Amino acid sequence: MASKRVSVVVIGASHAGLGVSHKLLRQAPEASVTLIDPSDEYYFNIATPRFLVKPGSLPSSKYLYDIRETFNDYPSRSFTFVRGLVRSIDYSKKSVSVTTGESSSTESNAISVAFDYLVIASGSTTPATLGQGSLKLPFKATAFEDTRKAISEAQAKLLKATRIVIGGGGPLGVELAGELAEAPGSVKNITLVSKTGSLLEGATETVQRTAESILRRKNVEILKDVTVDQVTQDPKTEIWTVTLSTGQTITADEYISTTGVIPNNEFIPKSFLNQDGWVNVDEQLRVVEYGNSRSDTYALGDITCHPYRLLSRVAVQATTVASNIAASVRKNTRIAKYSAKAQKMMMVVPVGQSTGTGHLGGWTLWGCLVWFFKGKDFLTYEAPKFLRGKVQ
Ligand SMILES: Cc1cc2nc3c(=O)[nH]c(=O)nc-3n(C[C@H](O)[C@H](O)[C@H](O)COP(=O)(O)OP(=O)(O)OC[C@H]3O[C@@H](n4cnc5c(N)ncnc54)[C@H](O)[C@@H]3O)c2cc1C
């Protein structure tokens, strides 16, 4: 009689969930993986500052990919994709409850999926993605929403706007300002509001100064040491009023928030979460509950308590989780450990099509290198590798 296959359920089919699924299927063919996500397309959100602002710059085939197709090489009994949203985890039955289909609201079409091991890779979202106090821009995938429609609506709004305020002077705010300054259509009047005294907090001083000087050359107005205290939008005219900590108010066609990350944690037991809503994990990336590591549940990517929620951190985490589940399935005692500190600090920030700034460890990157690594196509050349779990 054939032995029962070990079932692994992975929640979230973005960079982290895809990475761990492929790596596990390659390492432990005796495992059977069920990957769950509300969308059956992989969204390479990293390139959003480019294609939302310059629609003609990248075809959708560079940032939207069919998920199922990339699993065709494995035996069919090894992999199942479920299009749906996980609503809850039931440890008494070792199963997750999933709402399937096109709608986010109906509970009637809920199914239950059993697991031996569970991997939480549900990531995060942003205020702008949800349209909370900001122009709605799909910086991340949104459950059950048509991503293509959200993209084309956002592109149309950005094309039309001439007066734009961006809240947040981090990498996304700087990248977006650089793209908008070169946007097609009428000349845009852009204000970037940074709550800190320099842009790109955490970068070296040289990098911070370079970002600022490129943006100023592109006529972006930069307000430093200023916070956005309130934003309102007139429902009739759709004009935004942005109130700053200085007391100044700015009216704009669009206000874009680039700050804040929100954990996708609605279905996760509260006992797994730290006070900010992120999943506690140990060095093996096993979920920690009441101070103890669970042997059946792992988490990786943005949803974990590790700071620096970055794509550049996801591949190593996926390798760690896949290796540890494979070892556990095979009763192997070799354990992989993840150390956030061991990963090199890096920041690569294109400021427009042809230049930018950044650093890799202590090395400052020249504008031409930033163009080469990221600016020319916003890393979309890497997307197929993330999609197939080929990044180490
Ligand atoms: C605009 C932007 C630009 C960025 N640029 C960079 C960059 O240049 N470099 C860099 O290193 N990082 C960058 N990042 C950060 C990077 O996007 C994240 O670190 C990365 O997306 C994390 O991947 P993830 O798979 O953990 O989570 P996510 O990408 O957030 O994906 C989570 C997935 O889980 C799904 N999901 C959520 N809840 C459920 C549920 N209940 N059931 C089923 N599925 C669910 C979601 O729909 C989604 O598909 C950027 C972020 C943004 C917003």
TrEMBL record:
The keyword Oxidoreductase applies. GO terms for cellular component: cytoplasm. Residues 7-317 form the FAD/NAD(P)-binding domain. InterPro entries: FAD/NAD-bd_sf (IPR036188), FAD/NAD-binding_dom (IPR023753). GO terms for molecular function: electron-transferring-flavoprotein dehydrogenase activity; flavin adenine dinucleotide binding. It comes from the Eukaryota. It holds the Pfam family Pyr_redox_2. Belongs to the FAD-dependent oxidoreductase family. This is FAD/NAD(P)-binding domain-containing protein. It comes from Penicillium cataractarum.
